[in-house]
Amino acid sequence: MPMTSRNIQPDPVAEERLINEAFQNVLDAYLASNHRKKVDIIKRAFRFAKEAHKGVRRRSGEPYILHPVAVAQIVISELGLGSTSICSALLHDVIEDTEYTREDIEHHFGPKIASIVEGMTKISGGIFGDKASLQAENFRKLLLSMSTDVRVVLVKMADRLHNMRTLGSLRPEKQYKIAGETLYIYAPLAHRLGLSKIKTELEDLAFRYEHPQTYAEIMAKVTDTESERQAIVEEFVAPVRKRLDEAGFKYEIKARVKSAYSIFNKMEKKKVPFEEIYDIYAVRVIFENNDDELEKLRCWQIYTYFTDGHAVHPDRLRDWTSTPKANGYRALHLTAMGPRGRWIEVQIRSQKMNEIAELGYAAHWKYKTGQTDSAELDKWMNTIKDILANPEPNAIDFLDTIKLNLFSSEIYVFTPKGDLINLPAGSTVLDMAFSIHTDLGYHCIAGKLNHRLVPLSHVLDSGDQVEIITSASQTPQEEWIKFCHTAKAQSRIRSLLRKNRRSLAERGRLLIEETLGREGIDASQHIIARMVNHYGLTTPEELYIKLAQEEISLSAKELKELNKKRSSLLSKILRNPFSSSSRSETASAAEPVQTIDRKKVFVLHPESPNYRLDTCCSPLPGDDVLGFVDENETVVVHKVSCPAAMRLKSSFGTRLVATRWEGHADRFIADIEIDGIDRHGILGEITTLLSSDLGINIRQLNITARQELFHCDLKVQIDTAETVEHICQALRRIKGIKFAKRTT
């Protein structure tokens, strides 16, 4: 992603030395790898890129060539790729930013490198940019090129990672856009390709820029608890070490902690503080193994060493040694009870499993060692091709469809014949039908699970054996979209519904032309627009479809009856120039709209709101928020972590504006949930604390008790998010209250 400036004049000798040292580091890493040594072509690519980017600088002020060199460093050191990918990384911005063409690259470096560089150029500026539909088309091209040469997206991952590492030199609204785009599509894509290290770093970097204060707080707590964590882990693994040594294993045990982003997600999802996250600990056992046939057996042998001395969580065993994840990940996971009542996750991997997990199945096997054992990757590539065969016309819908299959856990279900089918967690009977065959999905009416019928919306669990029940008369319905969790099912249903809608719309259009023609009226765009407005619809297509489906009637008999009542439908539509749309157009034309400067920080004034809060996330002063400038130049405020904001950051980056709260006003509503042990007088204590002690205005209170427990939903009027946290802390001090948390 170009971030250039030409106004800085530093020491050219020092810069030259810096550039050469950075490139030498790339060469050193390459020479230390097990690739065939094609040093000459890498040096030529470096010289070519250096000359092409001569005089250009990044926004940080450094020479631009340092960016492609840094991307090349990631490609060799963190992805383990070879000379073709290193050259592509060095040249990845040449076609986009300079006078050179694909033909020039191909002439000097061959068709493979030229193809990868061109693939990178097609998705420049991110997946979205200013022209969402064009960028979505480019993303389709990326996925198509990835299906034949995954190195396109691997080099793009390295490019994105370096841009995220150097994001500090950009303005805040640009940071929001790039960070949001990273979380929305690049991190899930890295996950699907098995690039766990890159996925984790991308998430943490995006989190750091979107929630800087929360990120700093979590990292400080992780650091503060490190010594205690190490002591717990060492006590936990000591007996296992002894057993491993006695059995003659060569191994390494690593203690690891959840990433900052994972911890934050858990805190947000569970609405609990850092101290109440109990699965923050994890241990990884990596053992040497020179016999593939014994690999799985040795995983289970190590598993028994943990179960002999520790209680194991019965619902947290994950065996990916027999059935790998869709990205090729293989390991054996268990969760055992450690010292001080802490649950500790254990990941057991061979060195081979670990390399695949860290570097990515595609990167490691297909390109590092030259092997082509990539059945799982190819299976996913076929899914992508399947989606591309029935693309969504809307850019954001297309990306949402793709994302369904990028970042989901997996379940394994069986056909009546015992064939294994891999599906995203949350998949339904309908998803399974479409995964087997499109026609099976179109005609699915139910499923047969454990000798009982279940509806097509039934959510499946791992291990279910399902028979699909079909009917020749069954056809897809609009509501089916809600029952689907896979991209294939959704795209297939939408595709067929679009065909049906086109057919209905054409029938409706002919019907309206015929009906209006009998009345001697031309079916012009102006007339159709007024009819659309009269019926409260949004598009002519909706009008045509409703006419075809007979939800709206324009029969001659009805027109005559309406004429008798002097309220003829056509006369009302044709003779009323003051429709709601006309009024709104007049009003908007009369009131000049002041343009919001996207480059400046927009100050939010709670006491006299100069913004609009979106109801999807109900932000409060003190929350990390961003502004989205709508078509009326109104700043709409979202929480940074809001799912709707995620889409806005990704798809409308030019409309984002950085924001800052200034001033106070006791005018915001916050929702709080309280759970605890019921006793006489507890409701009085809650209301006294809020109203008398804290001076909080209670707007709504609902409390229900069941046996010895109670649950309370509160709406309170407050000024900031900090006040809500103070309220929750005070509530938790009341005897019997176990949980008090903000829910919006």
Q: How does this model look, in words?
A:
The chain has 744 residues and is of the alpha+beta class. It is built from 30 helices and 22 strands. Strands 3-4-7-6-5 form a five-stranded mixed beta sheet. A four-stranded mixed beta sheet has the order 14-16-15-17, covered by helices on one side. A hairpin with a 5-residue loop joins strand 8 and strand 9. Helix 7 crosses helix 9, helix 8 (132-148) packs antiparallel against helix 18 (375-389) and helix 10 (172-192) runs antiparallel to helix 11. Mean pLDDT is 80; it is low at 4-8, 125-135, 365-373 and 558-592.
Write the layout of secondary structure elements.
Blueprint: E1 4-5, H1 12-31, H2 39-52, E2 57-58, H3 66-77, H4 83-91, H5 94-97, H6 102-109, H7 111-122, H8 132-148, H9 151-165, H10 172-192, H11 196-210, H12 212-224, H13 226-246, E3 251-257, H14 260-270, E4 281-287, H15 292-309, E5 318-319, E6 332-337, E7 343-350, H16 351-359, H17 361-368, H18 375-389, H19 395-404, E8 410-414, E9 420-424, H20 429-436, H21 438-442, E10 444-449, E11 452-455, E12 466-470, H22 487-518, H23 525-534, H24 540-548, H25 556-564, H26 569-575, H27 580-590, E13 602-604, E14 612-613, E15 625-629, E16 635-639, H28 643-651, E17 656-657, E18 659-661, E19 668-677, H29 682-693, E20 697-706, E21 709-718, H30 721-732, E22 737-742
Parallel strand pairs: 4-7, 13-18, 14-16
Antiparallel strand pairs: 1-2, 3-4, 5-6, 6-7, 8-9, 10-11, 10-12, 15-16, 15-17, 19-21, 19-22, 20-21
